[in-house]
């Protein structure tokens, strides 16, 4: 059974940066990062298919970058210009084949938690103003 282990969360000031890491015990074709704020549904932040296609939620475009080091089986989320509204528990997730959904007239990778079968534990990101 493959596992995902997330790390890298922390407490920062607004405008600072963090890098989240998610190490898998095997290779992943489709992977993504979700976040969940208290009392809210889990939201897909970014997703990656085979290092060729990426998807981001509008609120993080231009600030966050998803990437992967295949040699290390590690998925990253580079977060810059962090805002207090980015405060959440962040989860990495993986799927054997990406589910593409038509959202707002554009096809996007795996926007629903049900699009992923494997999850890492959450890592908390807190951004203070």
Q: Sheet bearing the most strands, described?
A: 7 strands, mixed
Shape: globular
What is the string of helix and strand elements? Answer: EEEEEEEEEEEEE
The number of helical elements comes to: 0
Multimerization state? single chain
- Taking the alpha carbons of the first and last residues, their distance comes to 41 Å
Radius of gyration, taken over Cα atoms and rounded to an integer in Å: 14 Å
Write the layout of secondary structure elements.
Layout: E1 4-7, E2 10-13, E3 18-24, E4 30-36, E5 43-49, E6 53-56, E7 64-69, E8 74-79, E9 88-95, E10 100-103, E11 106-109, E12 118-119, E13 123-128
Structure overview:
The structure is a single chain. The chain is mainly beta and 129 residues long. Helix content is 0%, strand content 53%. It has no helices and 13 strands. It has strands at residues 4-7, 10-13, 18-24, 30-36, 43-49, 53-56, 64-69, 74-79, 88-95, 100-103, 106-109, 118-119, 123-128. Strands 2, 4, 5, 6, 9, 12 and 13 form a 7-stranded mixed sheet that branches. A hairpin with a 6-residue loop joins strand 4 (30-36) and strand 5. The termini are far apart.
Brief write-up:
This protein has no helices and 13 strands.
Main traits of this protein?
129 residues, mainly beta, four-stranded antiparallel β-sheet, 13 strands
